[in-house]
Design a protein that fits this description.
The protein is mostly helical. Helices cover about 40% and strands about 10% of the residues. The longest helix is centred in the middle third of the chain and has 23 residues. The relative contact order is 0.11.
């Protein structure tokens, strides 16, 4: 029997309470939505409040996952503008995003986390498109939202094992990471998992919430934004971070060699009195990454691939391994020993 699509007054009040916690913590590092913030004019409808519409989203499943919520830029435009563009869309002309009532029933605290996720999309639209006239790639936009999911979780009491915590996307990534690159988007659960994994890596190794803040204030988008933020926090660029990502796919748990990059490192940042924590997690407790044998395989741009041999396992004493450099100069080859 299908659960009612309605939520109770108590559930609505709890979402409102959680959003009142999320909003100042998120805007502290992201900036503000159109018309929001101190001295803001309230946006298209002149209302300083952000509206949240909770309803049973008709297109509730997309691919292999439920749609927890969404923000739509159509609500920034007038109906006349949408009609003139030939778009069969309606606008609410408001600062509004939408949450699936089924998600509120299934995972109440996870639904609160979705508030932070969609708020980032709303703010990103204002900061990058409205203010700077820049179009943002979906993978980059979603990565920022999931980085916010990560650093906001503690504020709403969402533990790393709770349904709806973004860290729970990692096992999907570990199983299927090789299927696409970090700068690709295919609107499925794997895309979310893959893009979050790269964002989680950046958070735990290159600056935490401060990195997110610098990405949003860089006046750039996509790879250029990540590079600008990385240069400010660690004096490295996107390609450097990508080259070091493979270490995090291997080194986790105990022991972790000094100086390597890993997911298994908590990163705490305090900005304007708000303390943000990205918690460590051990990928081997999640089953570890799929490791392929020594056979030729195709790699996508900005991707990673782990290969090994049974002959290299459980070796005592010395071993000699000869590696042949890939003919493609864009592929970097590394030997990692765990």
């Amino acid at each position: 029997m299908r659960r009612s699509s309605k939520i109770t007054a108590a559930q609505a009040q709890e979402l409102s309470r959680q959003f009142d916690i999320i909003y100042p913590a998120a805007t502290n590092i992201l900036g503000f939505e159109y018309g929001g913030g101190p001295g803001g004019h309230g946006g298209r409808d002149g209302d300083p409040k952000v509206q949240i519409l909770v309803y049973d989203i008709v297109r509730a499943y997309e691919g292999d996952g439920i749609i927890a919520g969404f923000f739509s830029s159509r609500d920034w435009y007038t109906q006349a503008q949408l009609d003139a563009a030939g778009l069969n869309l309606k606008t609410n002309m408001a600062k509004i995003f939408y949450i699936n009532s089924r998600w509120v029933h299934m995972a109440p605290v996870g639904a609160a986390r979705t508030l932070a996720h969609e708020l980032q999309h709303m703010i990103n639209w204002n900061v990058n498109f409205v203010q700077n006239g820049q179009n943002v790639a979906t993978w980059y936009n979603e990565m920022l939202s999931m980085m916010i999911d990560d650093v906001i979780a503690d504020f709403i009491g969402l533990s790393t094992t709770d349904v709806g915590h973004v860290i729970l996307r990692i096992p999907t990534f570990l199983e299927r990471y090789h299927e696409a690159g970090f700068t690709e988007w295919h609107q499925d659960l794997l895309s979310y998992a893959r893009i979050y994994a790269f964002g989680a890596f950046l958070l735990r190794n290159f600056g935490g919430a401060e990195l997110v803040r610098r990405m949003m204030t860089s006046n750039a988008v996509n790879v250029a934004s990540i590079t600008a933020a990385l240069q400010a926090t660690a004096d490295v660029d996107f390609e450097y971070a990508l080259r070091r990502f493979g270490e995090a796919m291997v080194f986790s748990g105990s022991p972790i060699p000094e100086g390597v990059f890993t997911f298994d490192r908590s990163y705490t940042t305090t900005i304007n009195g708000f303390t943000y924590i990205s918690h460590a997690f051990d990928i081997w407790d999640m089953g570890g990454p799929h490791v392929f044998g020594l056979v030729p395989m195709t790699m996508r741009p900005h991707s990673v691939l782990l290969q090994s041999s049974d002959d290299w396992a459980n070796i005592s004493g010395d071993i000699s391994i000869t590696l042949q450099r890939p003919s493609d100069p864009s592929i970097a080859l590394y030997l990692l020993v765990r």
